[in-house]
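Q: I have 152 residues here and want to know how they pack in 3D. Can you give me a structure?
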Amino acid sequence: MTDKPIIPEIRDLPAQTVRSKRITLTDFPQGIPRLMGEVLEEIRSAGKMPTGAPTLIYHDQEFNPQAVDVEVAWPVDDPSLANDTTPAMTVAYYLHVGPYDSMEPVYPAMMEWIFANGYRPSAAMREAYINDPSVTPAEQLLTEVIIPVEKV
């Protein structure tokens, strides 16, 4: 990871139809690939493919690695596969480049920026995984860190 400053940008995201599953993971973070794979298999077994990258939505107010309330959402364009819609929202957005285990400083820096710039978090934080860690070198992994916000 580089030492570049973590400076988010404000973006407006559209609503998105998704195939999702929400569970409490007791084997975080090792259980994430399994959860993503389960939902992806539901889509593939219908002969379809997702229309974008998977997103993890963290529903916990306070992060507890022993029991993480998490939802995986794969975007789909087939209404018969969709079981949820993520709402349109304004977000603080940051693209992290590098290994997942180097993301620790991202969230505190984003929260500091959010409050310093007249916003506050308004919904569950999320991460979108742009490339596949099974075929992408760790230093080239792209993770979108997305924190829904509202102006104070």
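Q: Anything worth noting?
A: The first strand starts at residue 9 and ends at 13. The helical segments are 31-45, 106-116.
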